[in-house]
Write a structure and sequence with these properties.
By secondary structure, the protein is mainly β. Helices cover about 15% and strands about 40% of the residues. The protein is elongated and about 80 Å long.
């Protein structure tokens, strides 16, 4: 294998061609046809976008069926760094923000958030803050006893859905 002398590209901010000096094994020479070797550095403009994440956007995974969980932490953000053209169309709907609750019992827990691009696009860096969030896990409500009247929560559900639609349309 052939290496080169160290090349510092730290200060390069535009497309550049750099002449390189190969470090060759003893007895090996660069062909006279290629007396100079060059490295072409292409610079892609990077940008940063920060998205605010609502509690309902976080997927709580791995919870036992007899338990329910509620995210307590607010103010979650995802900072995305990548090429400007990729960031322009990226929304929080393109991301999967999750927390693994596997093996946790009822109580208050600190869990780590994970974030991923749903389509796995190359060249994106995703950072979620805070990294750890509070989750309250409770035992799920049991079914009404035989002969008990089930409660009608239709109105509450409709009101909640209307509020969620209003929140989503403000984005």
């Amino acid at each position: 294998s052939v290496t080169t002398e160290e090349i510092d590209v730290g200060d390069i901010n535009k497309d550049t061609t750099i002449e390189i000096v190969p470090v060759l094994p003893e007895g090996v020479e660069v062909s006279s046809k290629n007396e100079s070797l060059t490295l072409v550095v292409t610079v892609a403009l990077m940008d940063t976008k920060t998205l605010k994440i609502q509690k309902g956007d976080v997927v709580l995974e791995g919870l036992d069926e007899d338990l329910s969980a509620q995210l307590e932490t607010t103010g979650i953000t995802v900072k995305i760094t990548g090429k400007k053209e990729l960031l322009r169309s990226l929304t929080k709907k393109d991301l999967i923000i999750s927390a693994d609750l596997s093996g946790l019992d009822a109580g208050k827990h600190q869990v780590t958030l994970a974030v991923a691009d749903e389509e796995g696009r190359e060249g994106l860096t995703l950072e979620v803050a805070p990294e750890k969030v509070s989750v309250i896990i409770t035992e799920a409500a049991s079914e009404p006893e035989a002969g008990g009247e089930p409660q009608d929560n239709t109105e509450d559900t409709e009101d909640r859905n209307q509020k969620e639609e209003t929140i989503e349309s403000e984005e």
